[in-house]
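hiii so my PI (J.) wants the whole complex modelled not just the main chain, which honestly fair. so below is everything: two entries, each one labled with what it is. i double checked the lines twice but i was tired so who knows lol
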Amino acid sequence: MSQSSVESAVDDLEPDEGAEAVELDEGTEEGADEGAEESEGGRRRGPRKPSKARLVELEQEGEIAADYLEGLLDIADLDGDIDMDVEGDRAAVSIVGADLKQLVGKDGQVLEAVQELTRLAVLRATGERSRLMLDIGGFRAARREELTELGTKTADEVKSTGTSVKLAPMTPFERKIVHDAIADAGLRSESEGEEPSRRVVVHPA
Amino acid sequence: MLEDALDHLVRGIVEHPDEVRVRERNQRNGKVLEVRVHPDDLGKVIGRSGRTATALRTVISALGGRNIRVDLVDQRGR
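here's the output for the full assembly
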C-alpha cells in the first residue's frame, strides 16, 4: 500500500497559523452564544433554564468528558480530580489539582486545545455538538474574576465621565463575562469589530 | 507515554477507534509520532482548517516538549 503524509494537514500544523485558526473558529461558534447574552432592544434575556431531559443530556456530556480526561491524566501521570456541573445550558467540567500548569499553557492555549478535543469526544459519543466548558487548575475561574472586576471598574468610569469606553480585544468567553458585569452595574454594552479584534464598548446610561 | 496519550486522544474522537495506530520514530531532529486512522476518520482528525490536528499537536507538545512532530499519515492509495 502506498502511504504519504498528508501535506495539507502538515501545513496546517504550523503552530502560528494553527493557533489563529483555533481562535477564529472558536469566535464564530461562541459568538452566537455571546450575542444571545447581549441586550436586545433593551430587553435582556436571563440564563436559559434547561429542561429535565436536557439536564440529563448535559450530565451525560460531563461524564463522557470526564472519562476522556481521566484517561489523559492517567497516561500523562498527572494528579487531578474532575468536577462536573451544569452551568446555564452547558456542561461544565473542571480538572482541579496542584500542578496542572502544563495543561493550561500560555494564555490558556493548551486548555483550549484540550477543551476542543473533549467536545469532539462528546460529539463522537452522543452525535450532538457540545458547548461544554472546561476549566483546568482554576484558569477560567481566575480570568472570570479579573474580567468581572474590569467590567465593574469600567462601568464606574463610564458613569462618572458620561462617555463611552472601548476595551481591548477579547475572546468571546472573555467578552461575555465583561458584558455580564456591565449589565450588573446597570449599563449597556455591545461588541464591535471582527474576530480576533472584536471588543466590548461600554455606553453611558 | 506520548504515544499512549496521542493514541487515547485520537481514539476518543474517531468512528473507528480500533483502527487507530500511533508509531514513534526517532529522527535526527527529534521525535515523530505517526498517526494512522481509518480512511473515513482522516478528515475528522484533521478538522476544519486543520483545527483538530492543531489541538492534538498543542496537547502533545505541552506534555512532551517542542521537539515532537505529529504526522497524520494518509493510508489511501494514490
